[in-house]
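The methods section describes the discrete structure representation at length, but only in general terms. What matters is that the chain and its backbone geometry are given together, residue for residue. For illustration, here is how one protein appears when written out as sequence plus structure tokens:
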Amino acid sequence: MSKTTEPCSCASEVRLPCISEADFIPSVVSQLAEGFTSRRWSSHIEPVEIPSWRETVDLILQAQRILFPGYFSSSTLPSSSSLGYHIGHNLTLFHKNLSQQVNSALRHECFRRNHSCSHCGERSSQIAAAFVRSLPEIRETLETDISAALEGDPAAANADEIIFSYPGMFAVLVYRLAHRLFELEVPLLPRIMSEYAYHRTAIDIHPGAVIGDSFFIDHGAGVVIGATCTIGRRVRLYQGVTLGALSLPKDAVQRLKNAKRHPTIEDDAIIYANATILGGDTVIGARSIVGGNVWLTKSIGPDTKVLLKQPELIYIGKDGETKQKGGKGDGNI
């Protein structure tokens, strides 16, 4: 039997002309360059250096090695007697790199606002030093976050597992670093950090949010915590939780830019999967529980449970007949 020859998969009825690079590259270059130089499109083609995304991400990884010695190093740490040298060496490099990126961020911001940048170098050094001095306090808070994970998740075998593999722990680590830079009024760097954490974990925590100690995000993917959100101590969130803002009309966006737009979650509250809580005036009282899939735009008092009614489930067998109706229960947590 003769073999049928199939047409080439790249065959197409659309006929494109054969042209050389010289026929189209210069034109495209001209169009792109005009769009950037005319400032119709965003770009950074200025004489002032902008912070490096890669170097900023490296700062996160350096801080991780400093705050969790031995976990993320490429080799086994030396004996505990030389731990101080190891931390000191890494901390010196971290401080130098942080100073450089803060300096670039400050100079870039001054250039954008047409401000004089005569003190940017001095200020960047002061900010980097203040940040480094904060690291012991940040580490102490992170230990409470680890403890919260151990207490809140029966599947957590030990602290090692949480530090190594829990996306919520990594997201909270990055948040606590970025939040300190946010407090020190460093532009750009905190958002670069938080977006990197989002890229790795699908957990989006704005560095401006204020979050107390012993904070635990279980599973985590899809969690959103807005810029003006306030979260108390020992709060637990599950995947898909949104702590967001109500929709604003266009003419109010700039006017309310610095207003409280996101909810307040008080101590010991638990918010289950896919719950949505919106609005700057919305307060979830201490020790309250918000069930899965609940949508809230109004405050609830302390020691309150908010649950959806259990939906009625219908079970259909292979013959197409309804076998059972049911599913009404005590709630959705």
Q: What stands out?
A: Helices lie at 21-37, 53-67, 83-112, 120-152, 159-165, 167-183, 189-201. The mean pLDDT is 89.
